[in-house]
Batch of 2 targets.
Target 1
Amino acid sequence: MNRQNELNELFELLRFQSISTDSRYKQSMQDCADWLVAKFQRMGLTAEKHATPGHPVVLAKSERKPGRPTVLIYGHYDVQPVDPVEEWNSPPFEPTIVNDIIYARGSTDNKGQHFAHVLGVEETLKEYGDLPVNIIFLIEGEEEIGSPNLDPFLKSHAAELACDVVAVSDTGMVGRGMPTLTYGLRGIACLEFRLRGPKIDLHSGIYGGAVANPSMVAAQLTAGLHDMDARVTVEGFYDAVQPLQDWEREQWAKLPDGEADTLEQTGVPKLHGEAGYSALERRWARPTAEVNGIGGGYQGEGSKTVIGKSAFVKLSFRLVPDQKPTEILKLVRAHLEKHCPDTVRIEIEEGHHGPSYLMDPFSTQGKAAQAALQKAFNREPVLIREGGSIPIVQSFKDVLGVDTLLLGLALPDCQAHAPNENFPVENFDAGIRLNRLLLEELAKA
Ligand code: BES
Ligand code: MN
């Protein structure tokens, strides 16, 4: 298939409005999964759409031939919501190329990245009529909402999914043209709390001073999650945290100045964070507490003198080895209950969570991945950890007993989860090459 056809097919995939968190797009999720199944079948793979209590899983396989390793390639066809949609320079589901960069929701995270692997396999099959390894594609539709149904799916299909290694392109590259092997991911634990004060919104002049304001208490509890050194104050939060290893601190210190790049990419006036660690170390290997949403009181134009009857805060914690997500949620709950004054009532709802991941980048398979990256980009790969989370990766280890090679193709300015998400055509091509080389290297390993 020529390259224009490959791009056209990626564009077809990018046009599906597969927003997993929004129930209005349920049918788009089904349509996108059906499209993938049809694509895999055209390639000559056995492919099926598997229903789950949520969005379907797409599973495709080559014939399992003895005497060669089995490689499972994981990706996700679901995407994040597009708002604020007015900040996009072209419609999020109308893929548009400007200066050889593809703009579309899901272009990087994760359709462009996993589809490059699909096309790599297709090219190899076309050229040789065979593959150097047995292939399983597992493309899910719930990654962006915490993969609630994938873990049970792995368990119930463990025999069918048995493999020697997993490969995933859903992480970043440290820079353009810089091949990157990610050997660790942070975990995540989400939690929302709501504070209820008066039974109705109150006049803030009549009652102010005698009644606690839920918005104010929410702000105090939230601010209280960190001390002056930007360390998380939740009692026991750091107990299980493993220190960074010397070799990784040394390697990361040699990378292009993370701090200057982060200032440039984010536009913040100054960086912030835990004392004693570089910005990269804080992003990749230290745990955090974040506020993802906060609300209460009057949100409209002008002023309104009111004490809103309730307020809410959405929190997420990024976790590192060996913090256990459920344990952390318990600690956070205890912390909030202890520090919440009795002038309001607190309701805590635990959200999705998933563990961190860490593997040895110098294992046989890790070295095969490094060799493939080196050949695909003609440059020595960089070894990093990442701050983002792909919760299912640790489940591959727990349920299938295998490591996951994280061969990211996302650039630092890919705008994942934000307006104008983009993926350079150059990275799409590199992904196709990388897949072909990776399967060869894994077959040799
Ligand atoms: N591709 C990302 C994960 C990622 C991003 C890893 C950057 C490394 C670097 C993935 O699609 C994602 O966004 N995951 C969510 C998971 C969560 C919703 C459970 C995340 O990290 O917020
Ligand atoms: Mn994502």
Target 2
Amino acid sequence: MDRETQICGLGFYVPDKILTNDDLEKLVDTSDEWITTRTGIKKRHIVEDEACSDLALVAAQNALQDAHLEPQDLTHIITATFTPDSYIPSAACVLQKKLGIKDIPSCDINAACTGFIYALDLARGFCALYADAKVLVVASEVVTSRVNFNDRSTCVLFGDGAGAVILSNSGEDGAVLEDVLLKADGSLGELLTVKGGGSAYPLTFGQKADEDFFVQMQGQTVFKHAVRSMSNIALEILKKNNLSVEDINLLIPHQANNRIIEAVGKKLEFPPEKIFVNVQDYGNTSAASVPIALAEAKQKGRIAPGDRVLLVAFGGGFTWGAALVKF
Ligand code: UT7
């Protein structure tokens, strides 16, 4: 690639309403002790009457402000989500309207929890093609719209939120997006599904949604693949760039479960103090988890100028990916 792609703005947003483990104890047969020891999650933010594009809008406005840009400066919008406002129009088109702009290409992509990393690579492609590109990448999820609150094995895991970045070729103080690596293995698709309403599982008029309409997951198997895929792709992107674990100042993994994060850290021999974790506050926000963590890590002073950050995620599909960012 000829041009250097930069991240010139970061932002995130989570809805105000908080659902604690104690609240969940009142909904299903679970306990704060079980959720905390098995996942590390203490609370998650959930929407009341906001849709995907509403969360995306605030995250995008925060990223625009951080980049000292106006919505009119944007050239493309990519929204990573598996919970768009509707099938049509896409969340990206609804977001475009809410930003008060027109004409620029806007679309959604779905790579489940890896969606943000996938969108980064697509945005990097736009930046390579168009010298003046200013691409808004926003990962926004109302995961709770596809969570079965009768299923204790999944409903304790997820939260809602959005994270956004702006990519360009010309940001003077921008962080350099050094590389992105993506993978997928469709043969593992059945491990994590949201089937209902898709064309292979169509709803008929008047039919009530059953459990197929919501997230279903083979937790233990997903756990194993998560650890393996994130560790392997982290090592692969480091090797590809002639880097080692010592060259990374902060690892930002997909925030699904603290035990998965710890296992990845151990496999990579990464010191825990160099791993950013906020799953305790937000739960698993799917595609939004990595950009929320990235923006929060920056906000909290965990990333200094010159630091190299490794982003790594996995998700349904099965998909996984990694990105290197030099601040
Ligand atoms: O973005 C991708 C998202 N996916 C993931 O990150 C999921 C990866 N998997 C996991 O994080 C873990 O597998 C879970 C946290 C989902 C489950 O933890 P686990 O240690 O694998 O538990 P398990 O599924 O083996 O279940 C152990 C026990 C079972 O009871 P029995 O059969 O031993 O009597 C479950 O029924 O825990 C029970 N259980 C619960 N108990 C209290 C399952 N969910 C709950 C719950 N509260 N919420």
